[in-house]
Write a structure and sequence with these properties.
Elements (H helix, E strand, L loop, with lengths): L11 H6 L18 H8 L31 E5 L29 H4 L2 H9 L4 E6 L2 H5 L4 H20 L3 E6 L9 H4 L7 H17 L7 E4 L14 H15 L5 E4 L1 H4 L1 H4 L11 E4 L6 H4 L24 H13 L6 H20 L4 H18 L6 E3 L16 H17 L3 E4 L28
Parallel strand pairs: 1-2, 1-8, 2-3, 3-4, 4-5, 5-6, 6-7, 7-8
Helix pairs in contact: 2-6, 2-8, 8-9, 13-14, 15-16
C-alpha cells in the first residue's frame, strides 16, 4: 500500500465540485469507542424498499414545533478538517481505498483543534460546532464492523472534545467530490441504487451510534447540499425520506437536520412539507447571497474565477474596473476558444450589470430570506427550526483573490443580524477554511479568531 499522500490544502468549493485529481489548494478535497456489537448491528441494517411518499409523521409535529427541537445550538461555526477531507491511497484511481487512518488531513483532530481553540470559541460566544464529516470511509466499510468501529472511534474524539469544552455538536454528513463516493455517484442511481443504499445504511449507523449522546448536545445532519434537480436521478425527496426514515428509526430523541436540493437553496425549501416529518427537525439553508459577491475569485467556478476584489454594497465607481479585470481574465484563459470567451464575457457582463443595478444592500439580502419566514408561518412552525449552518464570503488566499476585508466584515455581520432578527439558527463558514476562514491563519491553519468576522 502506498503511503498517505501529503496534505493538500483545498478550498471548500473544490471539495464540493472538483472531479479531477486533487491539487495543492485547500478546496481540492473541496472518547467514546463504538462497541463491536453496535457496529455489527449498525452495519447489518436493512431497510424496506424505498418510497417517494413522505415517511409516516409523528403526532406532535405542527404548531409550536420550536419547543420540540431538542438540539440546543443557536450560534455555531464550521470546522472542516480533518474529517471533511479523508485521504486515499491513490487519488488518481477512482477505485482506490481510503487510507488506514483517513483523518490525518492535515493532522489528527487533537492536533488541529486543541482544547485551547475550542475554549476560545466559547469565549467568542459560539455554542455549537458543525463538524463536517465525509461519510465515504464508512460507505466503503459498510460490511466491516471492525473498520466501522475504528472510524467512529476517531470521530468520537472530536465530538467529545467539543462537549468537554461546552460546545454542542452538529454532525454534518458531508459527502464530497474528492475521488469516490461523491454526491453525483450517490444520487445517480435513484433511491434504490446500490451506492445510495449503502449511504442509507451508514446514516443509520451514525444515528445508532450517536443516539447514546445527550440529545440537547448532538444533532445529526443527513446530507449536505444536494445539487441541482437536473443532476439528480429522480426526486430529491425520495432520497431524503429514505435517509430520514433510517436515521429516525435509530435516533428517536435527537434533532435531525434536513435540506432541499440546489445546494440547500432557500427557494427550493418552499416545496418541502415539514408536516411530513416530526417536530424534532431543523431545515437547512445556505444563504451565500448574492453569489457574485460571496464566491468572488473562486477558480472552480466558471463565473466567479473571472471576478474579484469588489465591494458589498456595490460601489458604482468600481464597476469599470471590475469589468476591465473580468475581460482581461477571460481573454487570458487559454482553456477557452474565442467563441467561448465571447460568450463568457457577455454572460458575466450581464451578471455584473445586475449586481450594480440593484440596491444590493442589507435590506436586499433580507428579501432573499423573507420567503423562508413566510414558509414557516404557512406551515405553522417556529422560525427557530431554520438553520443557516453555512454562510460566508471568500477571503484573499494563495490560490485566488477574494472579497475586500471591509466588505467581508460588513456582509458577515449583516447576514448574522438578518438571521438573528428572523429567529433562525446559524453557523458561519468556517474556522479552518483557506477560502472562507475567519481567523488570521493561513491555509487551513487555525489562527486568532477575528472578532469582526464572527457576526455574534
Amino acid at each position: 500500500m502506498k503511503a498517505r499522500q501529503p496534505f493538500q490544502v483545498l478550498t471548500r468549493r473544490q471539495i464540493m465540485n472538483t472531479k479531477d485529481a486533487v491539487k495543492t489548494t485547500r478546496r481540492r478535497l473541496l472518547g467514546y469507542a463504538l462497541l463491536q456489537a453496535i457496529a455489527l448491528s449498525a452495519c447489518s441494517y436493512q431497510e424496506r424498499p424505498e418510497t417517494t411518499q413522505a415517511p409516516r409523521r409523528a403526532s406532535n409535529n405542527r404548531a409550536g414545533s420550536g419547543q420540540s427541537v431538542t438540539f440546543s445550538g443557536v450560534n455555531g461555526i464550521n470546522i472542516m478538517w480533518p474529517f471533511m477531507g479523508p485521504t486515499v491511497v491513490n487519488p488518481n484511481d477512482p477505485n482506490t481505498a481510503y487510507s488506514a487512518n483517513p483523518f490525518l488531513n492535515p493532522s489528527s483532530w487533537s492536533d488541529h483543534v486543541p482544547p485551547a481553540v475550542l475554549t476560545r470559541l466559547v469565549a467568542r460566544g459560539f455554542d455549537f460546532v458543525r463538524i463536517c464529516v465525509a461519510p465515504g470511509p464508512w460507505i466503503d466499510a459498510v460490511a466491516d464492523s471492525t473498520r466501522t468501529a475504528a472510524l467512529f472511534g476517531m470521530l468520537d474524539v472530536a465530538v467529545q472534545s467539543c462537549l468537554d469544552a461546552g460546545l454542542a455538536v452538529n454532525l454534518d454528513m458531508h459527502d464530497t467530490y474528492y475521488v469516490k463516493n461523491t454526491p453525483t455517484q450517490l444520487l445517480a442511481g435513484g433511491p434504490s441504487g446500490t451506492l445510495f443504499r449503502k449511504r442509507v445504511t451508514v446514516t443509520h449507523s451514525f444515528a445508532r451510534h450517536y443516539a447514546a449522546y445527550n440529545p440537547r448536545l448532538v444533532a445529526l445532519e443527513l446530507f449536505n447540499e444536494p445539487m441541482d434537480p437536473g443532476s439528480i436521478n429522480g426526486d430529491w425527496l425520495g432520497y431524503l425520506n429514505a435517509l430520514y426514515t433510517a436515521a429516525r428509526s435509530a435516533m428517536p430523541s435527537h434533532t435531525l437536520l434536513l435540506t432541499m436540493e440546489k445546494w440547500s437553496d432557500a427557494g427550493h425549501l418552499m416545496r418541502a412539507n415539514p408536516a411530513s416529518y416530526d417536530a424534532n427537525t431543523l431545515w437547512v439553508i445556505h444563504p451565500y447571497l448574492p453569489a457574485i459577491f460571496t464566491f468572488q475569485g473562486y477558480k472552480d467556478s466558471n463565473f466567479s474565477k473571472y471576478v474579484s476584489g469588489f465591494n458589498w454594497p456595490p460601489v458604482q465607481s468600481e464597476r469599470p474596473g471590475v469589468i476591465s479585470r473580468m475581460i482581461a481574465a477571460v481573454s487570458a484563459d487559454g482553456s477557452l476558444t474565442e467563441a467561448q470567451k465571447k460568450q463568457q464575457i457577455q454572460s458575466t457582463l450581464a451578471t455584473i450589470g445586475w449586481y450594480y443595478s440593484l440596491p444590493e444592500n442589507k435590506a436586499r439580502v433580507g428579501l432573499y430570506l423573507d420567503p423562508v419566514v413566510k414558509w414557516c408561518q404557512s406551515n405553522g412552525i417556529s422560525p427557530d427550526r431554520i438553520i443557516a449552518n453555512e454562510y460566508g464570503v471568500t477571503r484573499d488566499n494563495a490560490d485566488f483573490k477574494g472579497a475586500p476585508t471591509p466588505s467581508r466584515i460588513a456582509w458577515l455581520n449583516a447576514m448574522a443580524d438578518l438571521l438573528d432578527a428572523r429567529g433562525f439558527r446559524k453557523a458561519v463558514f468556517a474556522l479552518d477554511a483557506v477560502d472562507f476562514g475567519i481567523t488570521d491563519g493561513t491555509g487551513s491553519t487555525i489562527g486568532t479568531i477575528l472578532p469582526a468576522l464572527t457576526g455574534i
